[in-house]
Specification:
The protein has a seven-stranded mixed sheet with strand order 4-5-3-6-7-8-9, with helices on both faces. A two-stranded parallel sheet has the order 1-2. Helix 6 (about 215-230) links the parallel strand 8 and strand 9 (about 235-240). Helix 4 (about 140-160) crosses helix 5. The chain has helices spanning about 15-20, 25-40, 110-120, 140-160, 170-185, 215-230; strands at about 1-5, 65, 70-75, 95-100, 125-135, 165-170, 190-195, 210, 235-240. The model is unreliable at about 80-85 (pLDDT under 50). The protein is an alpha/beta fold and about 240 residues long. It has two domains: about 20-50, no CATH class; about 60-240, 3-Layer(aba) Sandwich (Rossmann fold).
């Protein structure tokens, strides 16, 4: 079922953080006693010790009528050719940048932004006036839930987004995007994650997920737009 963005319900969840990250205290104990403890003792990031969050249920939400929808682009090094680890802080960076569209060509969202501008208004009504970018190295899922995801949700509401496409590369980037997508869906903003090199990042269980593998950006974006029309949750879609 698809409904007009103007009438799509925006629910209020009293325990929204628990809906974004299930069993957060259990995850935090595993994180602190495993990966983080080894990092503090040796200075090495041993990913075999990292236990990713594993959500069982994805938030539900109606699909969008794209002809009336305003979409937000969120990039966590989603398509970029460089490596997804772009911060010197091994504990991660949970900040974001909200860039007006005229400035977006200076950031890594250039290619998908150009493609989306070409696809409007034939495929959807319009883009939001800002692009959101963040860093993919977010090992502390609880900080993603408490800092990054709420900031993205607030920015999406400020620019009156009806839906969001989140691009991410690597397990940590896809994990952060998935948790953020869950938060957006809980606030009534339809979301789809386009993930390259996902690994265990998909365990965070976003409402809509496309596993892109070697997929080019335009094909992935078109698939993401199509998926936004479907009600959440959806099974992960795999593209060659």
């Amino acid at each position: 079922m698809t409904i007009s963005p103007d009438t799509r319900p925006r629910p209020t969840w009293l325990n929204s953080e628990l809906c974004v990250l299930e069993e957060p205290l259990a995850w935090l104990r595993s994180y602190q006693s495993g990966w983080l403890a080894h990092l503090e003792a040796t200075g090495e990031m041993d990913w075999s010790r990292y236990v990713p969050p594993h959500n069982r249920l994805a938030p539900a939400g109606a699909g969008l009528q794209l002809a009336r929808a305003r979409l937000l682009l969120v990039s966590l090094s989603g398509y970029a050719p460089h490596q997804p680890f772009e911060t010197d802080n091994p504990l991660g960076d949970y900040s974001l940048r909200c860039l007006p569209l005229p400035s977006a060509p200076d950031v890594e969202a250039l290619q998908p932004l150009q493609i989306l501008q070409k696809l409007t208004p034939a495929h959807f009504k319009e883009l939001c006036p800002e692009v959101i970018t963040g860093l993919s190295h977010q090992p502390n899922a609880l900080r993603t839930v408490k800092e990054f995801a709420p900031a993205v949700s607030a920015a999406a509401r400020r620019v009156r987004a009806h839906g969001a496409l989140l691009l991410a590369r690597g397990s940590l980037g896809v994990q952060a995007a998935a948790l953020t997508a869950r938060a957006l869906e809980l606030h009534g903003i339809a979301s789809a994650v386009l993930g390259w090199d996902c690994g265990w990042g998909a365990n965070a269980t976003p409402p809509r997920l496309i596993l892109c593998h070697q997929t080019d950006v335009e094909t992935a974006l078109l698939a993401g737009l199509e998926l936004l029309q479907s009600p959440a949750p959806q099974r992960p879609l795999q593209l060659a």
